């Protein structure tokens, strides 16, 4: 607008010049072109002002709409705040009720777990009782069958007894005659039974003594087998140790052949150790030899356990025990031959 006013002022000055000389105020081509340019700028500025006015009106309308929207939102926010303030005590109440419900639920869960454990225990007890009842039913059935069988036998015996009663009357007369013979027979029988009981007691004592001796012999045999097993295992381990030491000694001698005593002493002085310590350092076993030794130890341990199981078994274990002992003796024989060979061919 300011630029528009400046351009309008310039146009008025061009159209209504002040009282100066005619030479200075005479229009020229330059002023006409400048006049046209100013008019064109003024027209453009008018158009721009019209556009800006339209834009300003639309922005004012949008601002009014937004103000109305803001007022509506503020009213809605105030309503929501009132609703929140009204619902906050309800929420707190619900939270307290939820907390109480969770505590009650925890208590109910614990009670339910206790009841489930009791139900499981009662179920197991019921199953046991059911099994016991079933067994009692089977025994009752068996007893019922036996009762029926006994009743049948009873009736049969009763019939036979009635028949024998008739014979008994006939025999009673004979009983008086046989009583005397029975008395004598009882006397002789009691004497014979007394003698037989005395002989049986002596025989039983003899058998018990023999049984105790047999048990002692079995214990001695088991002790002997265990001791033999330990001694055999220990002797085999000693032979293995001797063979390993002999092999290491031969290796050390072979190694020292390539080195003079001067170089050996020089190596010991460099390492700041004695000659014996250097030899022990050179005698360190490799991983393969260590694994082999460990495997042999485990096999010996399994063999000892196998011997103990055989001795403690109830079946006939003599053939298996013999095979196991012979196997270890053969192993010892091979180790002795190997050690003798090494000692004969000592480097």
UniProtKB/TrEMBL annotation:
Residues 1-23 have a biased composition (Basic and acidic residues). GO terms for biological process: centriole-centriole cohesion. It comes from the Eukaryota. One of its GO terms (cellular component) is centrosome. Residues 1-35 are annotated as: Disordered. This is CNTLN protein. It comes from Upupa epops.
């Amino acid at each position: 607008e300011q630029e528009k006013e400046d351009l309008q002022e310039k146009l008025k000055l061009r159209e209504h010049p002040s009282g100066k000389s005619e030479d200075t105020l005479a229009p020229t081509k330059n002023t006409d072109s400048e006049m046209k340019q100013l008019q064109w700028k003024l027209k453009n500025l008018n158009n721009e002002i019209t556009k800006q006015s339209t834009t300003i009106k639309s922005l004012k309308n949008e601002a009014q709409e937004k103000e109305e929207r803001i007022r509506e939102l503020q009213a809605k926010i105030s309503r929501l705040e009132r609703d929140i303030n009204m619902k906050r005590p309800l929420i707190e109440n619900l939270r307290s009720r939820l907390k109480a419900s969770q505590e009650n639920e925890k208590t109910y869960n614990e009670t339910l777990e206790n009841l489930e454990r009791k139900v499981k225990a009662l179920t197991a007890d019921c199953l046991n009782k059911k099994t016991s009842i079933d067994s009692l039913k089977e025994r009752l059935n068996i007893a019922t069958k036996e009762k029926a069988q006994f009743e049948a036998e009873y009736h049969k015996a009763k019939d036979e007894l009635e028949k024998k009663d008739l014979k008994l009357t006939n025999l009673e007369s004979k009983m008086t005659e046989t009583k005397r013979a029975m008395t004598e027979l009882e006397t002789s029988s009691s004497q014979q039974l007394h003698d037989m009981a005395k002989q049986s007691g002596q025989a039983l004592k003899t058998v018990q003594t023999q049984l105790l001796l047999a048990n002692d012999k079995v214990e001695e045999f088991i002790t002997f087998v265990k001791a033999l097993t330990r001694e055999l295992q220990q002797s085999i381990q000693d032979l293995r140790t001797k063979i390993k030491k002999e092999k290491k000694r031969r290796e050390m001698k072979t190694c020292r052949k390539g080195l003079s005593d001067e170089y050996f002493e020089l190596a010991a002085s460099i390492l700041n150790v004695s000659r014996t310590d250097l030899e022990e350092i050179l005698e360190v076993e490799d991983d393969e030899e260590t694994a082999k030794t460990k495997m042999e130890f485990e096999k010996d341990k399994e063999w000892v356990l196998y011997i103990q199981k055989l001795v403690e078994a109830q079946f006939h274990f003599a053939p298996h025990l013999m095979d196991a002992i012979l196997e270890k003796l053969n192993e010892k024989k091979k180790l002795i031959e190997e050690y003798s060979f090494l000692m004969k061919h000592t480097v």
